[in-house]
Design goal:
The complex is a heterodimer of chains A (357) and B (287). With 357 residues, chain A is an all-alpha fold. Chain A is built from 14 helices and no strands. Chain A has a domain at 107-317: MetI-like (MetI-like fold), CATH 1.10.3720.10. The longest helix of chain A has 39 residues, at 265-303. The chains are: A mainly alpha (357), B mainly alpha (287).
């Protein structure tokens, strides 16, 4: 079986060493290139589709005044040719300047600093919940393969990934807020509630840092329901994945050997099956985390959660290119960083594994 | 493809999809929705856009699922909604599977630099928050269900490209492909005649798993007001009406259940197909 066309492995590349440092440098470089790829693609796609950001951001009367339109275009650089706009965007980006939002008229970086922690907070809690439940269900599913618990969990996790998040959010809100009165309502704090002094932007953490336990309790009670709704999809994914990776390992000879030497089943599962499976499960959790950031668009809409999703929505509707690019950059950077960390972890844990990227 | 069709045929084959209870449930639900969609004018008790009743009637014998803000019968609107959600999510999957397969085939067949560039582009798309881009494109093109389909296709193709590229790389190593190339087949002929049969099965399974996601994204965009526009009876936009009047539980609950059942049914089918076509099982069948 000789590889055909263009599959030659012997190509010499710079940094092609198999050592740890060239590996890290190479992965870092590809990650940075990916981030620029994201800016390039989002820029081109938003330019390719017709749509007039000026009309979307100016009122009817202002739009009919050519002077105001010209001033608006000049202010946001929309009068420049597209390649120039992109060049400017990237050079500014290198200095940490993400441009000015067309809809909020504030620097995008400042906007993101305000909205990102809100989403990060529910996404972190969601991924934590999803990991616990997903791992547990996945393990039960794998050890009871094809028997009743496995079948039930299969239906359960498929239902989890089939629920429209916006509807789940709405239904949960109706039941737990309107009927039962257990959930406090929309937003991050009660109306007029004083946010804790900003350190991380995560209200719960900031409140704890400040030693303000009642604000912590309040912030936590507000974030719990959106986080649970957000977690449901991830639970489905993680359950399926945990089951699959455990079953794969259960088929190995060394598991049979461990059983044969008389280890209790619990020890076999914990030490010889779960532990090797854990790394790949955490990989998926990392990827699930960045998909939660994006998935929060629909959930935040229902809970009026002032996060990245709401910001992305406003930016999209207002054809606010810098805003859209800013959100894409944040989410993509989280995704790319997660992948990078996981790749490096793999490499540390299993040095034999050759770079496959 | 014939392997899949065989799975669908009633047979005594142990791997027949009819032996899988979840698949049977899924196929039945989709059959019901398809039936409702086709015969909507005869089944729906009311005109979906008629504003004849009172507003916000609770579910009753006359209006099984109540009425909405504009006095319309929700059950009738859900039946008509199947005419939007189902065909458009299928169309969406067909479009993105076709686009992704073509790009993946080019990537896998050409190899070298072309392959590297295309694969880096798919990397970027994977890193991308798909819904954010889809929202932006849908908003720019103008909120319409057709534009939402285009917007989602733009973000949904890379997964097919990856799959097809991998399959082509594998299939290319077969001796019959080399033989065919030696006999002077053109690249296109090699791809269509020799390589394509290796692709249909896995692409079909992936596509079947993606129909549910397509429906979720599409109704999500409509929920946000970036897909189907009122007065169209689209399930996602019906739920958004329930979000505005969240204290009238029936307004949002039933359209959401419609989405859930349809997506769940597609996922039941996709998941069972994947099980049925599991390479180890498939191999065992051949031996």
């Amino acid at each position: 079986m000789k590889p055909v066309l263009g599959e030659s492995k012997a190509r010499k590349r710079p940094l092609s060493g198999t050592g740890f440092t060239p590996f890290i440098i190479r992965r870092l470089l590809t990650s940075i290139l990916l981030v620029f790829g994201v800016t390039f693609i989002s820029f081109s796609i938003t330019q390719l589709v017709p749509g007039d950001p000026v009309a979307a951001n100016l009122g009817q009367s202002a739009y009919s005044d050519p002077e105001i339109v010209a001033a608006f275009e000049k202010e946001f650089g929309l009068d420049q040719p597209v390649p120039v706009q992109y060049y400017k965007y990237v050079t500014n980006l290198l200095q940490g300047d993400l441009g000015v939002s067309l809809s909020s008229k504030r620097p995008v970086a400042e906007d993101l600093k305000e909205y990102f922690p809100a989403t990060l907070e529910i996404a972190l809690v969601a991924v934590f919940l999803a990991l616990i439940v997903g791992l547990l269900l996945g393990i039960i599913s794998a050890v009871t393969r094809d028997r009743l618990p496995d079948q039930l969990i299969r239906v359960f996790s498929l239902t989890g990934v089939s629920m429209p998040a916006f509807w789940t959010a709405l239904t949960a809100f109706y039941i737990f807020f309107f009927v039962l009165g257990w959930a406090p309502g929309t937003g991050r704090l009660e109306p007029g509630g004083e946010p804790p002094p900003t350190v991380t932007g995560l209200f719960t953490i900031d409140a704890l840092i400040n030693g303000d336990f009642s604000t912590f309790k309040q912030a936590f009670s507000y974030l719990l329901l959106p986080a649970i709704v957000l977690a449901i999809y991830a639970v489905g994914v993680l359950t399926r994945f945990t089951r699959a990776s455990m079953l794969e390992i259960l088929g190995n000879d060394y598991v049979r050997a461990a059983r044969a030497k008389g280890l209790p089943e619990f020890t076999v599962i914990r030490r010889h099956v779960l532990r090797p499976a854990l790394l790949s499960i955490i990989t998926v959790a990392g990827v699930a985390f960045s998909s939660l950031l994006a998935g929060s668009v629909l959930v935040e809409n229902v809970f009026s959660w002032p996060g990245l999703g709401q910001y992305a929505y406003r930016a999209a509707v207002g054809l606010d290119l810098p805003g859209i690019m800013g959100v894409s950059m944040v989410v993509a950077t989280v995704y790319i960083t997660m992948n990078l960390i996981v790749d490096i972890l793999y490499r540390i844990i299993d040095p034999q594994m050759k770079d496959s990227a | 493809m014939s392997a899949i069709l065989k799975k669908f045929k009633r047979s005594k084959n142990a791997n027949s999809i009819w032996r899988q209870p979840l698949a049977v449930v899924g196929i039945s639900i989709i059959a019901i929705w398809t039936f409702l969609a086709i015969f909507a004018p005869w089944i729906a008790p009311y005109d979906p856009n008629a504003q004849d009743a009172d507003k916000f009637l609770t579910p009753s014998a006359a209006h099984w699922m109540g009425t909405d803000e504009l006095n319309r019968d929700i059950w009738s609107r859900i039946i008509y909604g199947a005419r939007i959600s189902l065909p458009y999510s299928l169309l969406l999957v067909v479009l993105s599977a076709t686009l992704g397969s073509i790009i993946g085939a080019i990537s896998g067949y050409a190899g070298g630099k072309v392959d590297a560039v295309i694969m880096r582009i798919t990397d970027v798309f994977f890193a991308f928050p798909g819904i954010v881009l889809a929202m932006a494109v849908a908003a720019a093109l103008g909120p319409q269900i057709r534009n939402a389909v285009i917007a989602i296709t733009i973000v949904a193709w890379p997964i097919y490209a990856r799959l097809v590229r991998g399959l082509i790389l594998n299939a290319k190593q077969n001796d019959y492909v080399t033989a065919s190339a030696l006999l002077g087949s053109s690249a296109l002929r090699t791809m269509v005649v020799d390589l394509r049969p290796n692709l249909s099965g896995p692409v079909f399974v992936l596509a079947s798993l993606e129909v549910g996601n397509a429906l979720l994204l599409l109704s999500g965009l409509s929920f946000l007001g970036l897909g189907a526009q009122p007065p169209a009876a689209e399930w996602g936009s019906m739920v958004s009406m329930g979000a505005v009047n969240f204290d009238r539980w029936w307004v949002g609950l039933f359209p959401g259940l419609a989405i859930l059942t349809a997506v769940l049914a597609f996922n039941f089918i996709g998941d069972s197909l994947r099980d049925a076509l599991d390479p180890r099982t498939a191999k065992a069948l051949r031996d």
